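Case study 2.
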Amino acid sequence: MGGETHEPLVGLIRVGRKADMDGARIAALVLAAGWLTGCGLWDARGQMQMMGQACTISGTVVADDAVPGPYVVAVFRAPMEEGAVPEPVDHVVSAGGGEWFFGLAPGRYQVLAFADPERDGQHEAGAPVYLANQGGMLDCPAGTRLGNMEIQIEGEGVAGHAIALPVMRGAGPDGSPISVGGVTAFGEVTTLDDPRFDDDVARGSQWRPVDFMLAGYAGIYFLEPYDPDRIPVLFVHGMNGSPRGFAELIDQLDRERYQPWLYYYPSGLPLQSIAAHLAQTLEEIELRYEVESLPVVAHSMGGLVAKGFLHERARRASPAHIPRMIALSTPWHGHAAAQSGVDRSPVVIPVWRDMVPGSEYQRRLFESELLEETELHLLFSFRRPESGARAGTDGVLTLATMLYPPIQAMASSVYGVDTTHAGILTHPMALERVQMLLESGS
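Prediction:
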């Protein structure tokens, strides 16, 4: 299983710094060339330049049955003074080996792994460690992509100093070099009224995704502390949406049985990077709490993210069972307006390329089936001609993209609701259908 070189999640160029509306916003891509002028154009261009300055290090952990996991892959910044202890910058937790990546500020780094059966992020001096690049420092200047770093869980390396990594991580910088993990929420408890979920923040994430990441908004949020007696349900919003768009779906959950987990991400980034970020973030949380089962509910572009996330999990050997994925009004074959944005805009936001019908990202989603353990259930929205909507659409997406034949072939069920693209998140028939699907296998 070879490592994959990921596109940067965020342009990390500074050291030590600190409702769903996606239907209309997808359609608005066609106006991108006209909108991206003045300050908007300057902001978008600056964000793309910052993304290009990221240092990315990625690779694979090759597990050994003789050394039980889980494993921690940690990246350390080269010490400024000779003899000083290297500073841990970020880490990834892996259940049984698989892919990992770090998005970092430019610099010199060392990457190593160790077994962490106690799941406490602690490792004593003299204990075994397993090295990337034979333990040598990695020079990672601005714009560098260091991929295919293989770490074999074997050998005779030992830790020259004790390692203490934070078990509970949350959003926000801590004075260390900026890294993706350092500005990601790992199960932070909040409410749907959190200002981070406001519409203007969500809308801005398409044009200013780097600012969104550096502000510490991205990650997985809880609405209450974890309860081992209830099943988590992961919600993934669409383009320029936020967890707040799922308010009515969350309200109708049986909270004696389920607990909502909310993934929040900047809409402007490449979908592959978002899917990898979700997979890596969730794996650490599910290992922390020993989660066994986790259904997924996604809306619109969130369905594309969620399916890519399932593929990422397969490459990482993530442990939790994903019994079903419920996708509501997803543009499985993209949106024609995205092509207009790519063709006409002087600055192209990366996600637009992924939303072009038949894009490379979409093609990869259909190269392999879903995991055998995961049922896929499709809900789609449509408007009758008398509603005034364009024929064959829900007012935003065409039926052709929501009912793209290859995804229908993978689906266990397909269900239509006479409502708008955003209305499917609040329509009683859709709410009842989602609840029924969740209950059907729990």
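The mean pLDDT is 87.
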